[in-house]
Amino acid sequence: MFESPTIGQFLAESNLVATLPGTLLVAWTLLLVLVDLFAGVERKHWTPILTCAGLGLSFAANIFVYSPAEGQQIALYGMFIADAFTGFLNVVILVATLIAVLMSWDYLNRADIHRGEFYILALLSSAGAMFMVGANDLITVFVSLELLSIPLYILAAFRSIKNDGSDLSLKSEESGMKYFILGAFSSAFLVFGAALVYGATGATSIPQIFASAGAIAGSTSTATFYLLVGAALLLVGLGFKVAVVPFHMWTPDVYEGAPTPVTAFMSVTAKVGGFAALLRVFVTGLSVLVLSEGDAAAWQATATLIAILTLILGNFVAISQRNLKRMLAYSSIAHAGYIMVAVAAAGSADVMDAATQGALVYMMAYMFTNLGAFAVVMAIEKEDGSGGNIEDITGLARSRPLMAMAMTIFMLSLTGVPLTAGFVGKLMVFSAALQAGLFGLAVIGVLTSVVSAFYYIRVVVNMYLRDGRGSLEPALDTQYVRWAINIALAGTMIFGIFYPLATNLVSMVSIA
Q1: What is the reported pTM?
Q2: Is residue 76 domain-resident?
Q3: Vertex 508, ends 507 and 512: CA angle to 5°?
């Protein structure tokens, strides 16, 4: 006979304290909805202030919950795991959201789209990403992915209508619609893949999938076929979110049409959530999916191929781009390829932890560097959203030398030049690939980094060596944008110069 659990049993099994950073952010967001609803127009400036306060509270809760003394905690009846992996990526997500809010502060006013819903949607998307990095069940992965994605669909189209109801940008509307349609399509792949994995293993819990997959992979039953197809469909669904080839086609158009702060935000948050789920599902759950004894995981070859295609296409197509947002879109695809190198390396059992740590450091470095670059791009845009071409940054060193210096460091970090965070990330990722015996993949990664130097350094050449004054918009050369750039610059330099700081932060991460 079914017995309802006592309050004590419920609290013990749910362990809501372990989910405090994410749940606190959701609760704060719901409170923010009421505050924004009843605040008058003259008090709308409190919405971004309270948004930053909510991020600060979640950050403090994250430090409390994920202290080294706490170790690993299971919550929500086994569907959520709180460990060092979750805690580190929560910090990346919260800092990325803070920088995006600072970028949005004056941008929304200038574009006449200042609506409190913007910050509410950004917080909901961040909360979805935070639950996604701690997902311990395929159901949690899917629900968190939708909480991450649906607000981003709306934010991508946020510039389509002004506050007075008049049309503003068809590109923004198109980007939101395209992102929504393809995102829904990819979610279907994810759900179908989860259903097949459940059919093969009888579980959606990632640890239970791990316990069943080893025996299934060594047999000749139809369960092996279902498990392999399910894993492939999961890779397709998550591959769309992180924009790896051949699931990248939405990226350039969506990045170009969306408001620049949204583009910057989604370029980091969606990648962090997607790659966290990839590592959880494939490294934690399907690492024992080996077709013959002694081999690496069955999905390693596919991940390697995807990484190679992503590196080549992203870097070579970026060369021909004249619009900075489209260039950074293809650059974003390329950097997904570098993180995918770490995912592929994690397919070898003895390299799992090193590869995971390399992926985490790379995502942190990418967060600081990419957000900083987008902040500078936003500052040169005109009020109608145009003016973000490479020619518009010509001579920026003369009109804004400090901003040009920051952009130079961001470009060098994206290239992977020493003494920047980008170099540390690439070094750890390529080192993991070499340890896994993926020498060809590591060589391609290094060569494509050399290719990327062409279009990154071209930006620096235009700022310093070409005649012009730079078309910086005074309306966006504000203290909030400068704060965003300074935070990104500090992270890029600190973690590049003090290399052990980055490695020590992830030294306790173990996902296997």
Answers
A1: 0.91
A2: no
A3: 110
